[in-house]
Design brief:
alpha+beta; 3 helices
Length: about 130
């Protein structure tokens, strides 16, 4: 399983028994350490050029994920995200700023707990039947 981080390295679960848990930076080889990758590294590792939809629900971690190293958004057509701004201040601002920076024009719609951000000008992928 790939786990996203703002920078490559290692992380560990602070409370692995909780249904949702924060993570912290860890040393490689620490007992509960796992490898963390950037979203760009995950997309590259699995050969994704353009991604139609990314779904994110990371319990207020969106404020860190979207604060820096957001170049992966240049490869994404739409993001569905559960913003946790009502629980943790500062969650929405970095998300919206990164979307504006990489999407240009976009549509935004909240449905229940999810907020949808969709490019007005979708990126086009190479059709499957024309790939070598």
């Amino acid at each position: 399983m790939a786990r996203a981080s703002i920078a490559p390295g290692y992380s560990s679960a602070v409370d692995a028994n909780a249904w949702a848990f924060p993570v912290a930076e860890a040393k490689p080889g620490a007992g509960d350490a796992f490898e963390a990758s950037t979203v760009t590294q995950i997309l590259d590792r699995y050969g994704f050029g353009i991604v139609d939809l990314v779904k994110i629900d990371i319990e207020a971690g969106e404020r860190f994920l979207f604060a820096e190293n957001t170049e992966w958004l240049a490869r994404v057509n739409a993001v569905v995200i559960k913003l946790h701004a009502r629980f943790t201040s500062g969650c929405r601002e970095p998300v919206q700023a990164a979307i504006e920076r990489h999407f240009g024009g976009y549509l935004e719609k909240a449905i229940g707990d999810d907020t949808f951000f969709v490019r007005r000008q979708l990126l086009s992928a190479v059709p499957l039947n024309s790939r070598s």
